[in-house]
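Run log, item B.
One chain of 720 residues. Sequence copied directly from the ordering sheet:
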Amino acid sequence: MKKVIFLLLLFIGLESILAQHANPDTIQAYYYEQPIKLDGNLDESCWSQATPITHFTQREQNEGQPATEQTKIAVVYTTNKLYFGIWCYDSQPDKIAAQQMKRDFSWGSDDNIELMISPFNDNRSGYLFVTNPNGALADVLVGNEGQEWNKDWNGVWDVKVTRNQQGWFAEVMIPFSTLKFTSDKAQTWGINFERNIRRKKEQIMWQGWSRSFELENISQGGHLTGLNTIKQGKKIALMPYVLGGVEFEKSIVRHTKKIGGEINFDITPTLKLNLTANTDFAQVESDRKQINLSRFSLFYPEKRQFFLEGKNYFDMNLGSTKLFHSRTIGIDRQTVIPIIGGMRFFGKLNKTNLGIMSIQTKRKENIPSTNYAVIKVNQDIFNKSSIGFIATQKLSKGYNNRVFGSTFNYSTSKLFGDKNLKIGGGLALSDTHSNTMYNTLNKKIQDQLAYNFFVSYPNDWIEYDLSFTSVAPDFKPDMGYTRRKNYQMFYTELQFNPRFKKLPFFRNLVFKPIDINYYINEQTKETESIFYEWRPLGFVTKSGEFFEFNIQHIYDNPVDDFELIDGVYIPSGSYWDNRFEWQFSSFRGRKIAIDAAINIGDFYTGKRQEYQFVTNFNINKHLNLSIDWQHNYLQLPQERFTTNELGGRIDYAFNPKLLTGIFAQWNNEEETILVNYRINWIPKIGSYFYFVVNQEVDTQNGLSLERTTVIGKLIWRFTL
């Protein structure tokens, strides 16, 4: 029986791999000496002379079937720029979905075209560029075949789109200076394309259309050839900024004036040196305030563009433990610490990925001036695998925290023919010295360690994950993040996503018999927490809706009483909670889209009902609104109370380069309304103007305006 099953899986895998690539799998770039006017008309002679690709195949809804609408893509280049001509023909042009226009739009709701480019052709990393029928732009820096996803990266590129009775047509321009590639005279790049036709829920791809892969799995793509003697252009980019603002706090008025900026040097075509002085993040949207109903710390993501660019060259994780989290630099317990300046050196040299960073912050009140430094080296091995090393150091007067870590990741997409398998792990050691702590050399090495091992089988019909993580009690990554310490955690999850062609309503069903996180105390080996969830029913419809029903069994054993909220304490002890959860999402391509979740059941000494709702209103291509609400009703012996978190956003895009938006939030713990209003204008590609108004309104006794901050900031990009 085992042999029969193995042969069946092998047959299915071989059949799939033969069916997911089409010939030709190479697209030839055409060199053009004349200027190309970026207008979306595709009327220059080069577009008729270049050889396009036209064969696209469905990944959804009918895997392996021909596309129902014709798509054509051609590639043209000059010495310094790369161009894509895109013809998206449509038999019903009046039904084209295009509801977004802003920069970095959410492209899951619109018809779109996605370009995945890997200049290193390394089966791992690349650049994702997305546009829609409105000419909106979104880009992502992709690493490790989509496992590293940096949507906040903003490349210098542009697109123009036209529409008529035949469909919609795009002209994309990407300067070679935006991309990193080798200095070879003749280039061969990895490349792939995806088009989404939302009204049909149809997703078509040029190569690698197996449902076990995404577009970001660039190892399944094709190749771009014909690029000869290309140049990255200017090697030095200056990005100075000037900022002015005023803050009103009751009767106090404070004025702000600030200048600073960055200098970017392309040391080689693949290595970049970034210098920054008087670094400022005034334009960054404020964090979403969260009510914490757990005994562990909350995680806040990085939002600052300076640290988001090239983040994959610095990040390293052991499971959920981050050895480096850039948000620890310049932010201390939600307090902003001024940055004097620093440097970053990052890029790729042959098969070696390198990241070096050193940032110095100013002294602020009782927080001393501090240096933050990180070095990470990641070496590509085999076809898609890697080994890496990282060292971080937080250094201030009388204090020094260091972390050393190493990881190994093996990845293949050829198991049973075309199935994915990932195996890896890592080890890290921390070392802390201070005037108030005894020398860590006197501590046991094993008390300062963290390590992780994992196996992952992420495929369309079957998904399986297994991992083990250990974080010792004295492991202290000051430049990283760990939600809890002194634990060992075993995790495993098994999920089935079967598809039945004869079911008229469902695209696929979702069953999850196992999803467990089992924590024990690393020192005492006593059980601390268990989270077990199983999903008897879940499904995705052919119309794009998603539903799941989960049954959860949760165990927690806090050794000390902890404050839940505002003087309400949970006593120490052992607790078993049984909970039920329903989640629903409607198709995002509609004018009104809804996400909802309900979770009810036991909660420590009492009961908890949790409700979450998010509603998106896609009014038209210019105007988009969203409202979210999270509500908890807790019934505890000590007290019955509710928590509420409200948020709302209005975005209006005049065009893809001029956006205005307002974001407001409130919760009944802090009882403060935070309002953030922004105008973001891109006067030229790579330069930005921001006008920001932040307000705080106290709601404890009516409405009282506590603080208003008005800031204008201009960042201008020069090249030398």
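Observations after the first pass:
- The longest strand covers residues 252-268.
- The mean pLDDT is 91.
Flagged for discussion on Thursday.
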